[in-house]
């Protein structure tokens, strides 16, 4: 009976418009769901164990997993692993919006099929438009102005990006642009980390989480402020 319960929560590995992963019902529900929570990860660069650990610790309480590129192979491995691990399957959010980065292929094999990764996704969450991209095509190494222009064109009020490996939140007018940092290769003296976004009708709240190793080798997660 416990196994049946886990299977209820197993993500459906199908892709829809913009290559979003999950069932159509789960994607449609996310678009109108109040108080949605998003697990935002970026730039894992092959550190699958880190991605799996984050998902096991935080995924069960989130409505979607956002991956901002450079490590799509880790997302493919997560989907493969959860098929044979019921506890992990119960932690994988029902919707995954993952884009490819400059170090990623646009496709990745999975079992007998192929996963496709877009370079930009416009995701609807709680009635709000959310733009997801890696950021290299928008020149985020030199600023976020181009990304801000794309938000205006797409009518998205929130954007998530990666590439710089630096956690950052920028707010101007009604726009919020967030980099969760890198979960494996942080830069700028920052710790490795990720973010959790709470999407309400009138605002989006961001919590940055840093990854620390204790003296005994265990992993600890702590909220931190990158500023």
Number of strands: 13
Radius of gyration: 16 Å
| Weakly predicted, low-confidence segments | 1-8
User: In sequence order, what are the helices and strands, one letter per element?
Assistant: HHEHEHHEEEEEHEEEEEE
Shape: globular
Helices, by number, come to: 6
Distance between the termini: 47 Å
The main sheet orders its strands as 3-2-1-11-12-13
Name the average pLDDT: 93
Description:
It is a single chain. With 227 residues, this protein is an alpha/beta fold. The protein has six helices and 13 strands. A hairpin with a 2-residue loop joins strand 6 (120-125) and strand 7 (128-133). The chain starts with a helix and ends with a strand.
Chain-wise SSE layout:
Layout: H1 2-9, H2 24-32, E1 36-41, H3 48-58, E2 64-67, H4 72-82, H5 86-89, E3 96-98, E4 107-110, E5 113-116, E6 120-125, E7 128-133, H6 145-154, E8 158-160, E9 168-172, E10 175-179, E11 193-199, E12 204-213, E13 219-224
Parallel strand pairs: 1-2, 2-3, 7-8, 8-10
Antiparallel strand pairs: 1-11, 4-5, 6-7, 9-10, 11-12, 12-13
